[in-house]
Design brief:
about 55% strand; two-stranded antiparallel sheet; globular; 19 strands; about 5% helix; 14-stranded antiparallel β-barrel; single chain; Porin
Amino acid sequence: MQKPFKYYCIAMMVCCAFSIRIFAQAPVLSQYFASPLSINPALAGNGYSSWRIMAVRRNQWISAAVDPLNTTSVSMDGKLLKQKGNENNYLGAGVMFVQDQGLGGAYKNNSFNLAFSSHISLDPEDAHSIAGGLGGSFNNTVIDYSQLSFSQQISSSGFNRALPTFETNLSNVKPYSSVFGGVTYSYKTEVANLEMGLACYQFLSSVRTSLQDPTQLDPPRFNFHTDFQSYLGERTTFNANALFSFEKYFSTYSLGFNIGNMVGNTVEDEEPTMINTGIWYRHKQAISPYIGLSYGVMQAGISYDINISTSKTDLGPLQTFEFSLVFRSPVRVKSPVPCPWR
């Protein structure tokens, strides 16, 4: 390993060690694997391709009686700089935009994220490797009170939004920035890959309130994640992953698997066409069947949340769909195990 590159990688890893408690805006997604920078910044650039663009659109609580909550996540990441003579050592980078939108557009929460990673092989065959990542985010929440109605605005003809609300304490949430980081370990063979990692988001609790209440804070969040890929046969792959998230007052986990089936004639140095079918479980919230198609450098997927929560509403049946779209560069590593999130 050349000395300048080695020292830079080590510096990145040391910085990650000192950032063990950190945070960024976390979308609630069934297809969380299509938003890797919201899981761990060390995943920036860890795909099989030189770069990838990943987008997820979640339409939640679709019902005739309520405006849905829409979540959009768009990210791009890739390998920024490879070591000469050993491409298994490289620096990765990624950017991500996340938006939650609800109340017919009256509520919007935006998060802009930037992450850098350092990937280091631990042996000549690259069977074992580690990675560290650091990142930062800028978060902005906007509430358009002109689109909302308050009891003070009621008149004989119904709600009149031209009347004053008299809600003097209401204000937009002040923007804030945060830092996040994480580490991963990977083990791979010619026919299987295993990866696990730990990330920490929101090193300092941030005030997030529209009531100017300094006690309303976003606490630190910790993510532990793992995934596994292997061949079940010459034309069938098995992919599984799990994500555990922990906060001060809340913890949850999601886990599931995908079966990929190659269709048509495949050539070793070409992108195989894959039909992906899987299912994910989110703790006490939903079971999400998934179906997707990978064709060339493009991949698309759709999932539907089957609600298993014990919470009841009077709004009628609520439906949640997610759509994902991924574009990857044609250049990929040799003999990968096809996987929706790699």
